[in-house]
Write a structure and sequence with these properties.
The protein is α/β, with parallel strands linked by helices and about 325 residues long. The protein has one domain: Alpha-Beta Barrel (TIM Barrel), CATH 3.20.20. The chain is about 45% helix and about 15% strand. Helix 7 crosses helix 8, helix 9 crosses helix 10 and helix 11 packs antiparallel against helix 12. The radius of gyration is 18 Å and the shape is globular. It binds 1,3-dihydroxyacetonephosphate. InterPro entries: Aldolase_TIM, FBA_I.
Amino acid sequence: MATLAEVAHALVSDRRGILAADESIGTMSARLEGVGVEPTDENRRAYRELIVTTPDLVDSVSGIILADDTLRQRLSNGRTFPEALADIGILAGIKVDTGAKPLAGASEEKVTEGLDGLRERVAEYVRLGATFAKWRAVLTIGGGRPSERSVRANAHALARYAGLCQEGGLVPIVEPEVLMDGAHSIAQCQQVTRAVLRSLFDELALMKVDLDGIILKPNMVVAGKDCPEQPAVDEVAQTTVDTLRETVPPSVPGIAFLSGGQSPELATRHLGAMQNCGELPWELTYSFGRALVGPALETWWGDEGNWRAAQRALSVRAVANAAAR
Ligand code: 13P
């Protein structure tokens, strides 16, 4: 059986990245409705089948993060999703948090929940075929946010999640997302991202999490989407890499970015530009959701006749991101 470090390395090596297909039932339903598809269990299942049966996906995707419902569903050929992924050489991951909820006393800020019963759920997910996990914390910029209390509460939860995953045999993807919502500058995003990552690595050390058996999934350092001054691609790349160099220990094997609402093309260009920012101690790759699958979803429209075209749309993004690496 592979060690945690071997799984973590496999997820970020060979110029491949991770595909996030772990939208909650609520989020996935909204995305389906957005393209005119009725948000039924079957349509959510069919859409995930479209993704995992995309030809040659293994050349650019090392792992796919699934949600609890998908992990228990089957493809048309009767295979479970983890079995189908194992058949084609892609690792199965599982989102284990139960969502971001209002933080007590600071209701405009959120803390991610899901620690209760997590040890038992991890054991079950391992039995179902998962090899890695994900937990996402969200932090907002603006109006004095994020507060230190939300930064620390989220870092604490992420570190306890990571410890439980490692104890149970899953590689934790540790995702502290500083959101793009708002009009803040890239400098403000850098300042907040730096503070969030410092707090996170303090907590990971406290909880004795093995850094060579995790993947960090951060936001890129960008300006808020309503900021009138949008930085150039090279500035985003350099500022992101500088921030990570200051905060992420070299023993972390890989950093896999979320796309966070950037257009698919821009997320890919940022990723590509970061590869030219000098020698780095970790692999830099993608763990995109929307920036990988958005075009496929918009092509599919729930119509069987668009199935192949939608898979081609996913392939185009996957191949472009692998090339950017
Ligand atoms: P996006 O790339 O769409 O931001 O999603 C990544 C993800 O997994 C969020 O948790």
